[in-house]
Amino acid sequence: xxxLAEIRARIAxxxxxxxxxxxxxxxNSIYPxxxxxxxxxxxxxxxxxGNDKNTFFxxxxxxxxxxxxxxxxxxxxxxxxxxxxxxxxxxxxxxCPVLAEVRPWYKDESLKELANKYWKKRSYLFQGFVRQNPxxxxxxxxxxxxxxxxxxQIFNIIKSSLMDPEMEELPTDYIxxxxxxxxxxxxxxxxxxxxxxxxxxxxxxxxxxQQAIATHSLFxxxxxxxxxxxxxxxRIIKEMFEASVDGQPxxxxxxxxxxxxxxxxxxxxxxxxxxxxxxETRAPATAPVAETAPWDDEPAQASQPIQVPKAQxxxxxxxxxxxxxxxxxxx
Length: 331
Prior knowledge:
Replication Fork Single-Stranded DNA Binding Protein, 7-stranded antiparallel β-sheet, two-stranded antiparallel sheet, 9 helices, 18% strand, globular
């Protein structure tokens, strides 16, 4: 288990580096804190990562959300999102085909809004116990060690508190650790978690919690990152991105064996090997309005159609992208 000093040093190193450079369907082992009612608090006790080589007690996940105008052949579906892994998440020098296209868009003021739609979204995987649960219909799994998918808003609170010199002990310490309170409010019609905070009172693990760790063992959080896309998956991601920019519907026959919206079955004949690459969103494929994804606890809202600048309107995504590239080459 890494010490608090080691975590602080690692966070500082990552931030300095940034300044210089300036899976499968979820089950009830994931605690859906985004479903708690406004004005309520879920109290959790984070635990270390089962991977003792991980300095932190979390791992970062990077996904790209591709919005589509429904599903091909299904008039009942209006808007859906499909999430795909960004290969930059694996820190091995791999190039993300979506970000390779999107990065230059930020140089053009008229393309920034479009670029933001396709930029990678960060979330963070934690594990621990739920100690105060305001979800009346939540069913605790046999293994009470739950996983948490934390948005950047909550994560920034967690990280900044770890850098506070007044925090003297690692919050995941079995004896001297503290709870974290997830507080849900609203701001401007959106879910807001900015008042979430660490408890000031030390709270040792109970005998039952320690026994649960001994019985079930801690999760290796890296095991729950999406499978790294191979050459075939990267080709599919690029195709889906171009179709999304073009405003096309999701083609399940063409892409569903690799990535598809939550609730939509894989196409007939899809191989097991291909299906292992699938990441499903939380939005049922038959719903006209997307539900909140488990890695993004911002409020649920309908996906908006992509607005391509008038000067770049085209019947083909390749033409749209070609126009964008041409404009950038002239700049």
